[in-house]
Amino acid sequence: MAPQPNAVRDRIAARIVGRELELELLMAAIATGRDVVLEGPPGTSKTTMLKAITNEWTVSLVLAEGNAELTPAKLIGYHDPAQVMRVGYNSGTFVDGPLVQAMRQGGFLYIEEFNRAPEDTLNALLTAIADRSIAIPRVGVLVAQPTFRVLASMNPYDNVGTTRLSTSIRDRLCRIEVGYQDALCEREIVTLRGGIDAADACAGRVVNDAVALTRATRVHDEIRQGSSVRGAIDLCFIAIELLHQRGLDHTADGYSSTVLDAMLAALSGRISIDEASGATPASVLREIWENHFVLAEALAEPG
Ligand SMILES: Nc1ncnc2c1ncn2[C@@H]1O[C@H](COP(=O)(O)OP(=O)(O)OP(=O)(O)O)[C@@H](O)[C@H]1O
Ligand SMILES: [Mg+2]
Description:
single chain; Rossmann fold; Helicase, Ruva Protein, domain 3; 2 domains; five-stranded parallel sheet; two-stranded antiparallel ribbon; 13 helices; 11 strands; elongated
Protein backbone atom coordinates (compact mmCIF):
# COMPACT_ATOMS: atom_id res chain seq x y z
CA MET A 1 0.00 0.00 0.00
CA ALA A 2 1.27 3.46 -0.83
CA PRO A 3 2.27 5.40 2.29
CA GLN A 4 -0.38 7.74 3.67
CA PRO A 5 0.48 11.35 2.82
CA ASN A 6 0.29 12.33 6.50
CA ALA A 7 2.70 9.61 7.57
CA VAL A 8 5.15 10.73 4.88
CA ARG A 9 4.76 14.35 5.92
CA ASP A 10 5.31 13.50 9.58
CA ARG A 11 8.47 11.52 8.82
CA ILE A 12 9.86 14.39 6.74
CA ALA A 13 8.91 16.96 9.37
CA ALA A 14 10.72 14.93 12.04
CA ARG A 15 14.04 15.68 10.30
CA ILE A 16 13.42 19.40 9.96
CA VAL A 17 12.95 22.17 12.50
CA GLY A 18 9.83 24.25 11.77
CA ARG A 19 9.06 25.00 8.09
CA GLU A 20 5.57 23.49 8.35
CA LEU A 21 3.99 25.75 5.71
CA GLU A 22 6.93 25.65 3.29
CA LEU A 23 7.06 21.85 3.48
CA GLU A 24 3.33 21.56 3.03
CA LEU A 25 3.44 23.76 -0.08
CA LEU A 26 6.53 22.10 -1.49
CA MET A 27 5.15 18.61 -1.05
CA ALA A 28 1.78 19.57 -2.54
CA ALA A 29 3.54 21.04 -5.58
CA ILE A 30 5.91 18.11 -6.02
CA ALA A 31 3.27 15.44 -5.42
CA THR A 32 1.14 16.91 -8.19
CA GLY A 33 4.01 17.01 -10.69
CA ARG A 34 4.83 20.72 -10.48
CA ASP A 35 8.31 22.22 -10.83
CA VAL A 36 9.32 24.75 -8.22
CA VAL A 37 11.73 27.60 -7.58
CA LEU A 38 12.63 28.11 -3.92
CA GLU A 39 13.48 31.72 -3.28
CA GLY A 40 15.43 32.53 -0.15
CA PRO A 41 18.82 33.60 1.18
CA PRO A 42 21.57 31.02 1.85
CA GLY A 43 21.14 28.62 4.74
CA THR A 44 17.36 28.68 4.87
CA SER A 45 16.62 24.92 4.64
CA LYS A 46 16.21 24.63 0.86
CA THR A 47 18.59 21.71 0.39
CA THR A 48 17.59 20.24 3.76
CA MET A 49 13.91 20.09 2.72
CA LEU A 50 14.70 18.63 -0.71
CA LYS A 51 17.00 15.99 0.77
CA ALA A 52 14.32 14.96 3.25
CA ILE A 53 11.70 14.66 0.51
CA THR A 54 13.88 12.79 -2.01
CA ASN A 55 15.04 10.49 0.77
CA GLU A 56 11.44 9.68 1.67
CA TRP A 57 10.50 9.14 -2.00
CA THR A 58 13.72 7.17 -2.58
CA VAL A 59 14.55 9.22 -5.66
CA SER A 60 17.88 10.90 -6.38
CA LEU A 61 18.61 14.60 -5.91
CA VAL A 62 20.85 15.63 -8.81
CA LEU A 63 22.66 18.91 -8.23
CA ALA A 64 23.75 21.53 -10.73
CA GLU A 65 25.24 24.91 -9.89
CA GLY A 66 23.78 27.78 -11.90
CA ASN A 67 26.70 29.90 -13.06
CA ALA A 68 28.13 31.17 -16.34
CA GLU A 69 29.89 27.83 -16.90
CA LEU A 70 26.66 25.84 -16.90
CA THR A 71 26.41 25.53 -20.65
CA PRO A 72 23.63 23.51 -22.32
CA ALA A 73 26.22 20.73 -22.93
CA LYS A 74 27.12 20.69 -19.23
CA LEU A 75 23.47 20.50 -18.21
CA ILE A 76 22.30 17.97 -20.80
CA GLY A 77 25.46 16.00 -21.52
CA TYR A 78 27.81 15.52 -24.45
CA HIS A 79 29.42 12.87 -26.65
CA ASP A 80 32.87 12.01 -25.32
CA PRO A 81 35.26 13.11 -28.15
CA ALA A 82 37.86 10.39 -27.44
CA GLN A 83 35.23 7.66 -27.56
CA VAL A 84 33.67 9.14 -30.70
CA MET A 85 37.11 9.06 -32.39
CA ARG A 86 37.41 5.36 -31.57
CA VAL A 87 33.93 3.98 -32.18
CA GLY A 88 31.95 6.78 -33.83
CA TYR A 89 28.79 8.30 -32.39
CA ASN A 90 26.44 5.99 -30.51
CA SER A 91 24.35 6.10 -27.36
CA GLY A 92 27.29 4.67 -25.39
CA THR A 93 29.50 7.65 -26.19
CA PHE A 94 27.07 10.07 -24.60
CA VAL A 95 28.00 11.28 -21.12
CA ASP A 96 24.85 12.21 -19.22
CA GLY A 97 24.69 15.68 -17.72
CA PRO A 98 22.63 16.30 -14.59
CA LEU A 99 19.41 16.99 -16.53
CA VAL A 100 19.55 13.71 -18.46
CA GLN A 101 20.60 11.84 -15.31
CA ALA A 102 17.59 13.15 -13.42
CA MET A 103 15.23 12.41 -16.33
CA ARG A 104 16.48 8.83 -16.70
CA GLN A 105 16.46 8.10 -12.98
CA GLY A 106 13.22 9.91 -12.20
CA GLY A 107 15.19 12.10 -9.81
CA PHE A 108 14.89 15.74 -8.86
CA LEU A 109 17.20 18.06 -10.76
CA TYR A 110 18.15 20.83 -8.33
CA ILE A 111 19.71 23.91 -9.92
CA GLU A 112 21.12 26.26 -7.32
CA GLU A 113 21.43 29.96 -8.14
CA PHE A 114 19.21 29.33 -11.09
CA ASN A 115 19.13 32.99 -12.19
CA ARG A 116 22.90 32.91 -12.76
CA ALA A 117 22.74 30.25 -15.49
CA PRO A 118 23.14 31.44 -19.11
CA GLU A 119 19.98 32.05 -21.06
CA ASP A 120 20.55 29.31 -23.66
CA THR A 121 20.93 26.80 -20.81
CA LEU A 122 17.65 27.92 -19.31
CA ASN A 123 16.02 27.59 -22.72
CA ALA A 124 17.27 24.01 -23.04
CA LEU A 125 15.75 23.33 -19.65
CA LEU A 126 12.48 24.86 -20.73
CA THR A 127 11.85 22.09 -23.27
CA ALA A 128 12.51 19.40 -20.68
CA ILE A 129 10.15 21.14 -18.25
CA ALA A 130 7.40 21.56 -20.81
CA ASP A 131 7.66 18.22 -22.65
CA ARG A 132 9.06 15.90 -19.93
CA SER A 133 11.26 14.58 -22.74
CA ILE A 134 14.39 15.66 -24.52
CA ALA A 135 15.92 14.96 -27.93
CA ILE A 136 19.54 13.92 -27.47
CA PRO A 137 21.54 14.25 -30.69
CA ARG A 138 22.49 10.84 -32.11
CA VAL A 139 20.88 9.05 -29.17
CA GLY A 140 17.18 9.71 -29.65
CA VAL A 141 14.31 11.01 -27.59
CA LEU A 142 14.49 10.37 -23.88
CA VAL A 143 11.18 10.43 -22.02
CA ALA A 144 11.58 11.30 -18.36
CA GLN A 145 10.53 8.90 -15.62
CA PRO A 146 7.33 10.12 -13.96
CA THR A 147 9.04 11.22 -10.74
CA PHE A 148 11.37 13.62 -12.60
CA ARG A 149 11.04 17.19 -11.25
CA VAL A 150 12.94 20.41 -11.69
CA LEU A 151 13.71 22.38 -8.56
CA ALA A 152 15.61 25.62 -8.56
CA SER A 153 16.84 28.08 -5.97
CA MET A 154 17.41 31.80 -6.03
CA ASN A 155 18.81 34.23 -3.49
CA PRO A 156 16.66 37.38 -3.32
CA TYR A 157 19.74 39.42 -2.28
CA ASP A 158 21.58 38.35 -5.42
CA ASN A 159 22.32 41.46 -7.46
CA VAL A 160 21.89 39.49 -10.69
CA GLY A 161 18.24 39.62 -9.69
CA THR A 162 15.24 37.58 -10.66
CA THR A 163 14.23 39.78 -13.56
CA ARG A 164 16.90 38.05 -15.65
CA LEU A 165 14.59 35.07 -15.95
CA SER A 166 12.43 35.22 -19.03
CA THR A 167 8.69 35.20 -18.60
CA SER A 168 8.53 31.85 -20.41
CA ILE A 169 10.70 30.31 -17.65
CA ARG A 170 8.85 32.04 -14.84
CA ASP A 171 5.52 31.01 -16.30
CA ARG A 172 6.44 27.34 -15.92
CA LEU A 173 7.54 27.33 -12.29
CA CYS A 174 5.78 27.64 -8.98
CA ARG A 175 7.54 29.84 -6.45
CA ILE A 176 7.89 29.23 -2.73
CA GLU A 177 9.54 31.81 -0.48
CA VAL A 178 11.78 30.67 2.33
CA GLY A 179 12.90 33.42 4.68
CA TYR A 180 14.99 33.28 7.83
CA GLN A 181 13.39 31.31 10.64
CA ASP A 182 12.62 32.80 14.06
CA ALA A 183 15.13 32.77 16.93
CA LEU A 184 13.49 29.81 18.64
CA CYS A 185 13.82 27.62 15.51
CA GLU A 186 17.38 28.81 14.92
CA ARG A 187 18.37 27.90 18.48
CA GLU A 188 16.86 24.47 17.91
CA ILE A 189 18.78 24.05 14.62
CA VAL A 190 22.07 25.11 16.22
CA THR A 191 21.49 22.75 19.15
CA LEU A 192 20.72 19.91 16.75
CA ARG A 193 23.56 20.49 14.27
CA GLY A 194 26.07 21.45 16.96
CA GLY A 195 25.39 18.24 18.89
CA ILE A 196 24.69 20.37 21.97
CA ASP A 197 23.79 18.65 25.24
CA ALA A 198 20.56 20.31 26.40
CA ALA A 199 21.61 19.87 30.05
CA ASP A 200 24.87 21.83 29.61
CA ALA A 201 24.23 25.38 30.88
CA CYS A 202 27.40 26.81 29.33
CA ALA A 203 26.63 25.38 25.88
CA GLY A 204 23.06 26.59 26.27
CA ARG A 205 24.25 30.15 26.83
CA VAL A 206 26.59 29.91 23.84
CA VAL A 207 23.69 28.78 21.62
CA ASN A 208 21.54 31.73 22.74
CA ASP A 209 24.35 34.24 22.21
CA ALA A 210 25.45 32.73 18.88
CA VAL A 211 21.93 32.92 17.47
CA ALA A 212 21.32 36.46 18.76
CA LEU A 213 24.65 37.77 17.41
CA THR A 214 24.14 36.08 14.04
CA ARG A 215 20.61 37.43 13.71
CA ALA A 216 21.86 40.94 14.51
CA THR A 217 24.06 40.80 11.40
CA ARG A 218 20.89 40.59 9.26
CA VAL A 219 19.41 43.86 10.46
CA HIS A 220 22.54 46.02 10.77
CA ASP A 221 22.40 49.15 8.59
CA GLU A 222 25.88 48.71 7.17
CA ILE A 223 25.51 45.04 6.24
CA ARG A 224 24.06 44.20 2.84
CA GLN A 225 23.66 40.51 3.60
CA GLY A 226 24.10 39.03 7.07
CA SER A 227 25.03 35.52 8.06
CA SER A 228 22.79 32.48 7.84
CA VAL A 229 22.27 29.97 10.61
CA ARG A 230 25.42 28.24 9.30
CA GLY A 231 27.39 31.11 10.87
CA ALA A 232 25.62 30.57 14.20
CA ILE A 233 26.43 26.83 14.06
CA ASP A 234 30.13 27.54 13.44
CA LEU A 235 30.24 30.30 16.05
CA CYS A 236 28.84 27.87 18.56
CA PHE A 237 31.37 25.13 17.75
CA ILE A 238 34.33 27.51 17.93
CA ALA A 239 33.21 29.32 21.08
CA ILE A 240 32.61 26.09 23.00
CA GLU A 241 36.00 24.74 21.95
CA LEU A 242 37.78 28.02 22.83
CA LEU A 243 36.07 28.19 26.25
CA HIS A 244 37.19 24.63 26.86
CA GLN A 245 40.78 25.35 25.84
CA ARG A 246 40.87 28.48 28.00
CA GLY A 247 39.36 26.70 30.98
CA LEU A 248 36.39 29.10 31.10
CA ASP A 249 32.67 28.67 31.50
CA HIS A 250 29.67 30.93 30.85
CA THR A 251 30.01 32.70 34.20
CA ALA A 252 33.71 33.55 33.78
CA ASP A 253 35.00 37.08 33.10
CA GLY A 254 36.60 35.99 29.85
CA TYR A 255 33.36 34.53 28.46
CA SER A 256 32.22 37.47 26.34
CA SER A 257 35.68 38.21 24.90
CA THR A 258 36.00 34.54 23.97
CA VAL A 259 32.67 34.78 22.14
CA LEU A 260 34.02 37.84 20.30
CA ASP A 261 37.08 35.89 19.12
CA ALA A 262 34.84 33.05 17.91
CA MET A 263 32.43 35.51 16.31
CA LEU A 264 35.16 37.16 14.24
CA ALA A 265 36.33 33.77 12.98
CA ALA A 266 32.83 32.44 12.29
CA LEU A 267 31.11 35.50 10.85
CA SER A 268 33.59 38.00 9.36
CA GLY A 269 33.89 36.15 6.05
CA ARG A 270 30.16 35.56 5.81
CA ILE A 271 28.79 39.08 5.94
CA SER A 272 28.81 41.52 3.03
CA ILE A 273 29.32 45.14 3.98
CA ASP A 274 27.35 47.76 2.13
CA GLU A 275 29.56 49.35 -0.53
CA ALA A 276 28.71 52.89 0.57
CA SER A 277 29.84 52.19 4.13
CA GLY A 278 33.43 52.72 5.26
CA ALA A 279 33.11 49.98 7.87
CA THR A 280 34.95 46.66 7.89
CA PRO A 281 33.43 43.29 8.80
CA ALA A 282 35.48 43.29 12.02
CA SER A 283 34.36 46.79 13.08
CA VAL A 284 30.70 46.03 12.42
CA LEU A 285 30.89 42.71 14.25
CA ARG A 286 32.59 44.35 17.23
CA GLU A 287 29.78 46.90 17.36
CA ILE A 288 27.15 44.14 17.29
CA TRP A 289 29.03 42.32 20.04
CA GLU A 290 29.19 45.48 22.18
CA ASN A 291 25.49 46.08 21.76
CA HIS A 292 24.75 42.52 22.71
CA PHE A 293 27.01 42.15 25.73
CA VAL A 294 28.10 45.53 27.05
CA LEU A 295 24.94 47.58 26.51
CA ALA A 296 22.62 44.72 27.41
CA GLU A 297 24.51 44.16 30.65
CA ALA A 298 24.52 47.89 31.43
CA LEU A 299 20.78 47.98 30.94
CA ALA A 300 20.31 44.91 33.11
CA GLU A 301 22.26 46.54 35.97
CA PRO A 302 21.31 50.21 36.05
CA GLY A 303 23.58 52.44 38.07
N1 LIG B 1 14.75 23.88 9.22
C1 LIG B 1 15.92 23.27 9.47
N2 LIG B 1 15.97 22.15 10.22
C2 LIG B 1 17.14 21.55 10.49
N3 LIG B 1 18.33 21.99 10.02
C3 LIG B 1 18.33 23.09 9.26
C4 LIG B 1 17.13 23.79 8.94
N4 LIG B 1 17.44 24.87 8.17
C5 LIG B 1 18.77 24.84 8.01
N5 LIG B 1 19.31 23.79 8.67
C6 LIG B 1 20.74 23.48 8.76
O1 LIG B 1 21.44 24.65 8.36
C7 LIG B 1 22.39 24.38 7.33
C8 LIG B 1 22.01 25.09 6.04
O2 LIG B 1 20.77 24.61 5.55
P1 LIG B 1 20.56 24.25 4.00
O3 LIG B 1 21.77 23.60 3.45
O4 LIG B 1 19.28 23.50 3.88
O5 LIG B 1 20.39 25.71 3.40
P2 LIG B 1 20.09 26.14 1.89
O6 LIG B 1 18.83 26.94 1.93
O7 LIG B 1 20.14 24.98 0.98
O8 LIG B 1 21.30 27.14 1.64
P3 LIG B 1 22.06 27.54 0.25
O9 LIG B 1 21.15 28.48 -0.47
O10 LIG B 1 23.30 28.22 0.73
O11 LIG B 1 22.33 26.28 -0.49
C9 LIG B 1 22.45 22.87 7.22
O12 LIG B 1 23.49 22.45 8.08
C10 LIG B 1 21.13 22.38 7.77
O13 LIG B 1 21.28 21.17 8.39
MG1 LIG C 1 21.54 24.48 -0.52
